Amino acid sequence: MLKNPAETKQAKGPTELGGALRRRRKELGLTMQQVADHAGLSVGFISQVERGLTAPSLSSLVSLSEALDTHISRFLDQPDGSERVTRQTSRTAYSIEGPEEESAARYERVSSHFDGSQLHSVVVHEPPGHRSEPISHRGEEMFFILAGELTVEIEGKAYLLRVGDSIHFDSRRVHSSWNHTSGVTTMLWCGTMDIFGEAPDPIHKTGPGERVDTSQNQRETS
What we know:
By secondary structure, the protein is of the alpha+beta class.
C-alpha cells in the first residue's frame, strides 16, 4: 500500500541528483564513458541523468554510486533494515524523484540487514508507462508480480508478466522493464545487488580493470 506524500521520504529530485552525480564524477576526473563502463549503463542515459532530464532506477543509482566510489546514502535516504518484520500499514514508501512526481517509481523496503545477509528486497510500485533503463550488473534478481502487469526485456527478448507470475535471471544480462498498462504495477523485487549500500563488498561491484559490457544498453528513455 502506497502512503500519502506526507508519509513518503523526501528525495533530491532529478535536477539536484544529476548535479550531485556530475560534481562527484568531475571530482574523480572520470569521463561519462568510464562511469558507463563500470555501472553497466549507456553514456546517453548518464548524460540525461546528469542534466536532470530523467532519474535513474534504484539499481542504476546503486551502480552509479559504486562507479563514483560513493555510498548511495549521499544521493538517497532509504529506510534502515533494523526491523526483521515489516508491516504493510507502517512501511514508508520512498522515491528517487520525489513524492510530487506522479511518474516516479516508489519503493518499500521489506528486507532486513544482519551480519552475513546477502538478500535484498523491496516492493516496487511502477506508475503507468514507467520504463527502467537497460542495465547490466553482477548478481541475480527475481520479480514477482503482486498487482498489474509488467513487460520485462532481457537481451532483446520480452516477457509479459501478470499477477502471480515471476522471473528470475542473471543480472549480468542486459535487462529493463516497462509498465505497459494504464494502472500502477506492483511487484516484489529480490536480488543480491546491494541496493541499500550495507554490504562491505557488494557482489555486483566490478573488479580492478573489469568492464561491464554496455554494447546493448543503447535504448534509453527520456
